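Suppose you are handed only these lines of text.
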Amino acid sequence: MKVIQEYVPVIESVTTDVFAAAQVQLDVLRLDQVHPVVSGNKWFKLSRYIHDAQQQRKKILTYGGAYSNHIVATAFACQRMNIPCAGIIRGEEPRNWSHTLQAAGAYGMQLHFVSREAYRGQPVPPPVREEPENWYIIPEGGYGIAGAAGFADLILKIDGASYSHFACAAGTGTMMSGLVNAATTQTVVGISVLRNHTGLESAVANLLDARGKEKAFRILHQFHGGGYARKTTELIAFMNQFHLETGIPTDFVYTGKLFHALCILAGEGFFPQGSRVLAVHSGGLQGNLSLPPGMLAF
Ligand SMILES: *Cc1c(COP(=O)(O)O)cnc(C)c1O
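From them, the structure of the protein bound to pyridoxal-5'-phosphate can be written out as follows.
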């Protein structure tokens, strides 16, 4: 996608009391600023899939839940690139569509709702069954080698030599795999946002290329805050405080948990003095629309 190839990475150095006390530098890759609706990392994870689909002149089919950032990003990217697309949505059609579904529909994605049991079988809707050769399938959440490679393309544009650590939130682990593949000497730290996501290490490892397999990565599982898309009053208070200190807004599903974890880790001495951490702000801010008004101060 042209827009992505032209994107110039924006990295901001931030100061917080806890990082200053730990004598650790925190820099943030501001992918949240790429687009107001489409989460930063999704753009990049999709870029190679979209390119392949275009080359093969196929329509796009993908999968996700009613709140999936991947669904809305795919819908938007396909509209931009004039590619017809369909989304299989997990669960019966809700009476009130989420902001995500409304946006995906408005961008022209055909939405097909299927029961949770049927979804597990990754069903194909009738138009695809009739002409399977016309459709290009992007796995749920953009998980796959092309997704990791698209994200690595972005990281390779950055001069990362001075960083000791790269950090990101991990859902499917695709973005994290891209970071590991693109890393040189950095240790990559992933914060799992799902509870008991025991398969995450192997999900990341499965997308590593030959160079990626030689690098160090570490996934931390204790910062999910109750599970996927769950929030605690502590998390919300942290997000407000972090915004006050740094001016950076975060979302409660991914990046709020990432920065909360990084601040706790810095306070515990996880990062040796003098470390330089580059954290990926992967966007997702539109997810905050599902919070009650006034809960966040930004
Ligand atoms: C999807 C998403 C992630 C997780 O990316 P994975 O590649 O699935 O691990 C992180 N942050 C935001 C904002 C996202 O939308």
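What can we learn from it? The chain has a mean pLDDT of 95. Residues 39, 41-42, 45, 69-70, 141, 169-176, 251, 254-255, 282-284 surround pyridoxal-5'-phosphate (CB under 6 Å).
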